[in-house]
Each structure stands twice: as structure tokens, then as C-alpha cells.
Write a structure and sequence with these properties.
Chain lengths: 341, 326
């Protein structure tokens, strides 16, 4: 049971934060935790948080792996728009549900492959490599929807966005299942450790015999795939593909979710579960602000404050100071020497 | 030819070629009226891009400038509406605020040793949030002084108008060139971009320079906000979303190496002009949709980054060959 304890200790800060946010909301709104069952599915604010947080949660899964390799994927919002457009357009063409989904997810993988090739083969910094698709992606999505918002009435596709299975909304099932599968794959094999190795030192891990190129490409493809799932859900939710607004600025929310989850932006360690809780914290804050009647404008300031607090906690400088205060006097001399340099 | 100036030469060649293509199709494109409009329409982007050039030259990135521009517009508009102040003291207050804001981000980056990307992301949220808190609605600016500023222009031969804000952009670029290539600060920026460790060993004050760089970027973003408010006569908290990406694209297309340490402020001006030219062409054509702008900019970005990679690779190989010859 030692491993379970370690795991719980790892995600404890996130769980505490999430509970604190939820309790805070519940104190203002006593009926917050009420869940009712109607029309074959669950309703209530907690379910709403799980449901609305689905796109960011899905993006956070792929983003966690990318950030663990010391990379970043700015293109996920644009990939969402592209894949939503592909799904809507192929349904429009009269394709069945499964070919349309396969095409959308395949497009996501292709976008991930493109990013991965730029990063792993051409050696371009991730932030720039994915910036290209971020800039051009919405144009490509517009190309697919031909500049309009493509609406559809296909019941199967709509079911993915607003349907429910065993009373649980489909988006919730999809992000939880994806999170479990990816966690299982990376943590039940050596893959997770190898990904962390790349984040710590790509050169050393290559010398140690890790196939960094293939692994990096696979990581970016996972990110593309999770963005594609998020894009399909977002399109199915509004019953249309909006190339301009689908997934707009969600890449930033996804990065924020990963950072709240305690995954270091400097690479080298990650926890998908913690990132998912991070995504839920963001959504809980959003919902809380909406419920409280606070102007939604404060949302961004709160997000900025959260980032700042985490930055201070994560920073190497802060850790040094912490160690400095805990140790006895002799270290003071070495510290002065470092400053003198 | 020096490998350093090759990206700049490529940028200028592409700009001239693109302009020639536009001219062949629409002869009216060569008039000074179009050139004047090109400068006016892209003035705010150009000014912000100068700041971004310095940040990228130092190996950093600043994602906050779009939000800072929007904040500046709202700040000016709300202050002019609610107080009887003249625009000039408001401008001064705004520039002090945005400069301090940039300096604070620079200090956070240096002292907390965190990636500039995430620090300026927080800055982006903060500035946009402050703009929202000031006002969600678009606030019109109706001060007489604004009408005077908008009416100022220099009539170029051929009846083209070089407006005040277009002129300000050109002056900022001139100042940027002098700052980058003729001052100690500029040398420090290049040194920092070449490698923070090396720069520190050479005696470059890393902390002070980092703070100065982001303060400069904040100052220019504020100035860009003033120009944008003159351009639109309003302050709107949802304006200029994504301008930071346009600015980064302009800097890269202008031939500045994204890893820092190599590039020219003048190249950024050409980068901004290329992006403006694409938009002008689409307006002249009339049948193309505006999203082609994004795709073409994406393709240009890709082309320039691959060109840079090839150059770095070639230089490294030549260096190795030289080493072997010795």
C-alpha cells in the first residue's frame, strides 16, 4: 500500500484545492451539491462541472505528456477547430458516424504527427513549431467549413456531446476513460519513465538508448488525438462546427490545468490524474464565479493569481531559499559566494 | 555573403517580389496612398513588434502585449470619460503603468528563474482581466485632442498620407535600430540571447538587462495601445486578441532567430509590411476570404524557420570543417 500512499500524497494539494473551491461555493449556495435524476441522466452543478470541463480535461491529458518532455503544444485549440470541422463536414457529406469520427480523429493524429516531426526531426523549439499550426490551423478549419458555421442534425454525433450513458453524460465518460487508458499505458509500462527522461535531459536519454524521436512524435500525436476528441465533443455540444471560436484560448486553460496539477514546466515529472483534477479546479472556479453573480471578468484575474502563486511555489530560486532557511549557518557563506559570482 | 544577414535579405526579396506580383495584378498598389495606408493600418502592430524583437533577441517571449494594448485602450477611454483630464497626462500615466508592469514580469522571470512563457501568460490574463474590470463595453473616445491627433498627416507626393501614427511607428523602428546596434543595452541583449551563462561570465548584468527588456516591451505595448486608441477612437477590452502571435510571426518573418542572439529590428518592419501586404492584396482582390491571411502567414513562418534551421546547420558544419582543417 506504500505506492497508494505516495500517489495520494502526490495529488493531495490538488484535492485540497478542489475541495476548498467546492466548499466555498457550497457555503454561498447551499443547494450546490444537489444532484437530481431526470430524463435518463443526472443533473446538478457538480455534474455540470464534470461535463463543461470535458474539453480542457481532454486537452490536459495530451498536454501533460508534452510538457513532461519539456515541450509545449500551443496548437491544440486550433486542432480542436480543425477536427470539429472535419467531423461536421463529413457528416454533411452523408458519411456514417464511425467513418466521420475516424476521419476526425485521424486528422488529429496527423496534426500531432506534423508537430512531432517539426520538433523531433527538424529540432525546432516546441513553442514555435506548434505556433505555426496555431496560426494557420483556424484558417484551415475555415477552409473546411467554407467560412460558415456548419450545423448538423445527425443524432449519433449529437449524442456524443449531449447524450448520456447509464445516467452519466457522454463527455464525462469520454474524458475519464481517455484519462484512465493513457495513465494505464504510460504508468504500467516504462513509457512514462522514458518520457520523463526526455524531459530531464534529451541528450542523455538518447545516449542511454531511448528512441527519443519516435517517443516525441508519439507524445505529440497523443496530444493531437486528445485535441481531436475535445474538438468532436465541442462541435457535438453546439451541434455545429465553428471554425473561429471552437477551442479558442483553450490551449492556455489546458496549460494552466497541467501547471495546477503540479507538473513542472521544466519537464521531467508528470501526473495525468493531478492535471485532470487541475482541469476540474479551473471549471469549478468558472462555475463558481458564474453562480455567485460576480462579473465573469474576475475569472482572468483569478487565473493570473493562481499562476503567480504556483510560479512562486515551483521556482528553483524559491526552493533554494527554502533549503537555505532550514539549514544551519555554514551555508550562508556559500550563498554569498554564489551571489558574488 | 555573411550568413547572419541572409534571412534579412530573403525577407526583403520576398517583400519586393510580393509587391511586384501585387503591382502586376493591380497597378494601383504602387501609389503612395496604398503605402500610407499600409503604414497607418499596421502602426500598432509594428510598434508592439519592436518590443517583441528585443524580447526574442534576448531568447525570451512576451505573450502579454495583446492584452496590454487592449488594457491601454480601455484605461485611456475610461479615464477620459470619467475625469476631466487632458489626454497627455493620461498617456504619461499609462506608459508608466505598462512599463512597470513589464518590469515586474522581467523581475519575476529573473528572480524566480521561471520560463518567460508562463510568466507572461500570467501577465496576459492579468492585463486582460484588468481591462474587463475597467469596462466590458466598448468605450468611445470623443476628446477634441483626439480629433486633432487623427487629423495630423504629412502629404506625400502622389497624395498619399503619412499619418501621425504611421510616422510614430517609423520613429519607433528608427529608435529600435539605434538602441539595438548602437548602445550598451543593445549589446547586452544580443549577449543574453547568445547564452545567459556566457553573458554572465562576460560581465553582462543579466538581471538588470532582463528587467529592462521586458520593461521596454511593456512601454512599447503601452505606446501601441495609445496608437491603437487613436486609430479606432475607442477602448474595448476584447480588442487585439492574438496580436502577440502576429507580432511573433512578424519578428520571425523579419529574420530574427527565435533562439535569440541574432536578428535585426529593421527586419521586423519588413515582416510587418509583408503581413500588411497580404491583407491589402486580399482586400484588393475582393473574392478571397480573410482566412487566407492566416494560412499564408503560417506557410511563411514555416519557410523562414526551416531557412533558419538550414543556416544554423550549415554554419555548424562549416565550423566543424574549419576545425578539422586546423
Amino acid at each position: 500500500m506504500n505506492a497508494t500512499a505516495a500517489f495520494l500524497r502526490r495529488i493531495a494539494p490538488q484535492l485540497v484545492t478542489l475541495s476548498a473551491v467546492l466548499i466555498l461555493i457550497a457555503m454561498v449556495f447551499p443547494g450546490f451539491f444537489e444532484i437530481s435524476f431526470a430524463n435518463g441522466r443526472l443533473y446538478g452543478s457538480p455534474i455540470d462541472i464534470l461535463n463543461r470541463g470535458a474539453p480542457v480535461a481532454l486537452l490536459a491529458i495530451g498536454m501533460t505528456l508534452v510538457i513532461a518532455t519539456k515541450g509545449i503544444d500551443l496548437s491544440v485549440g486550433a486542432v480542436m477547430a480543425i477536427c470539429g470541422a472535419v467531423a461536421a463536414a463529413s457528416i454533411h457529406q452523408g458519411m456514417g458516424l464511425f467513418p466521420a469520427l475516424a476521419l476526425a480523429l485521424g486528422t488529429g493524429l496527423l496534426c500531432g504527427l506534423w508537430n512531432g516531426l517539426l520538433v523531433a526531426i527538424l529540432g525546432i523549439q516546441p513553442i514555435v513549431a506548434t505556433l505555426m499550426l496555431m496560426v494557420a490551423g483556424r484558417g484551415i478549419a475555415q477552409l473546411i467549413t467554407e467560412g460558415t458555421i456548419l450545423t448538423f442534425t445527425h443524432q449519433g454525433l449529437i449524442f456524443i456531446g449531449s447524450g448520456a450513458f447509464l445516467g452519466v453524460p457522454m463527455p464525462v465518460l469520454i474524458w475519464i476513460a481517455t484519462g484512465l487508458i493513457v495513465t494505464f499505458i504510460v504508468r504500467r509500462s516504462a513509457l512514462g519513465m522514458l518520457i520523463e527522461a526526455i524531459g530531464v535531459n534529451p541528450r542523455a536519454s538518447r545516449l542511454a538508448g531511448i528512441n527519443t524521436r519516435v517517443l516525441l512524435i508519439a507524445v505529440y500525436m497523443t496530444s493531437g488525438l486528445s485535441a481531436a476528441l475535445a474538438g468532436v465533443i465541442a462541435a457535438a455540444d453546439i451541434r455545429g462546427a465553428d471554425a473561429n471560436n471552437a477551442g479558442l484560448w483553450l490551449e492556455l486553460d489546458a496549460i494552466l490545468a497541467v501547471v495546477i496539477g503540479g507538473t513542472s514546466l521544466l519537464g521531467g515529472r508528470f501526473s495525468i490524474v493531478a492535471s485532470l483534477i487541475g482541469a476540474m479546479i479551473i471549471q469549478a472556479v468558472n462555475t463558481g464565479i458564474l453562480l455567485s453573480g460576480f462579473p465573469p471578468e474576475f475569472n482572468l484575474i483569478i487565473k493570473a493569481a493562481i499562476i503567480l502563486i504556483i510560479l512562486v511555489l515551483q521556482s528553483p530560486a524559491m526552493r533554494t531559499t527554502f533549503v537555505f532557511f532550514r539549514r544551519e549557518k555554514p551555508t550562508a557563506k556559500t550563498d554569498v559566494e554564489t551571489v558574488a559570482q | 555573403m555573411n550568413a547572419r544577414i541572409l534571412p534579412l535579405v530573403a525577407t526583403i526579396a520576398i517583400f519586393l517580389l510580393a509587391y511586384a506580383v501585387c503591382y502586376a495584378q493591380f497597378p494601383a498598389m504602387l501609389s503612395t496612398r496604398v503605402i500610407g495606408n499600409l503604414l497607418t493600418d499596421n502602426a500598432f502592430l509594428g510598434i508592439a513588434a519592436v518590443g517583441m524583437t528585443f524580447v526574442i533577441l534576448s531568447g525570451g517571449i512576451d505573450l502579454s502585449i495583446g492584452s496590454v494594448i487592449a488594457f491601454s485602450g480601455v484605461f485611456i477611454a475610461v479615464l477620459l470619460r470619467d475625469t476631466g483630464l487632458h489626454p497627455l497626462p493620461v498617456f504619461a500615466m499609462l506608459l508608466i503603468i505598462t512599463t512597470l508592469f513589464g518590469a515586474a514580469m522581467g523581475a519575476t522571470i529573473h528572480y524566480l528563474e521561471m520560463p518567460p512563457f508562463i510568466v507572461t501568460l500570467a501577465g496576459m490574463f492579468l492585463a486582460r482581466g484588468m481591462a474587463y474590470v475597467l469596462s466590458i463595453d466598448s468605450v468611445p473616445i470623443t476628446h477634441d485632442f483626439y480629433n486633432t491627433l487623427q487629423g495630423l498627416y504629412y502629404l506625400m507626393p502622389g497624395k498619399g498620407r503619412l499619418t501621425l501614427i504611421g510616422g510614430v511607428m517609423l520613429l519607433v523602428f528608427l529608435g529600435g535600430v539605434v538602441l539595438a546596434h548602437r548602445t550598451r543595452f543593445g549589446t547586452n541583449v544580443y549577449a543574453l540571447g547568445g547564452g545567459a551563462q556566457t553573458a554572465r561570465l562576460m560581465g553582462v548584468p543579466v538581471g538588470r538587462t532582463t528587467i529592462q527588456i521586458y520593461a521596454l516591451s511593456g512601454f512599447l505595448a503601452g505606446l501601441s495601445g495609445i496608437v491603437f486608441s487613436i486609430y479606432t477612437s475607442a477602448g474595448y477590452s476584447l480588442a487585439t486578441v492574438g496580436v502577440e502571435l502576429d507580432a511573433i510571426a512578424a519578428v520571425v518573418i523579419g529574420g530574427t532567430l527565435l533562439t535569440g542572439g541574432s536578428g535585426f529590428v529593421a527586419g521586423t518592419l519588413i515582416g510587418v509590411m509583408i503581413m500588411g501586404l497580404i491583407q491589402t492584396y486580399i482586400i484588393f482582390d475582393g473574392t478571397l476570404s480573410s482566412w487566407w491571411t492566416k494560412i499564408v502567414i503560417g506557410i511563411l513562418l514555416f519557410g523562414f524557420i526551416v531557412l533558419q534551421k538550414a543556416l544554423v546547420w550549415l554554419t555548424a558544419r562549416r565550423g566543424r570543417a574549419l576545425g578539422a582543417a586546423r
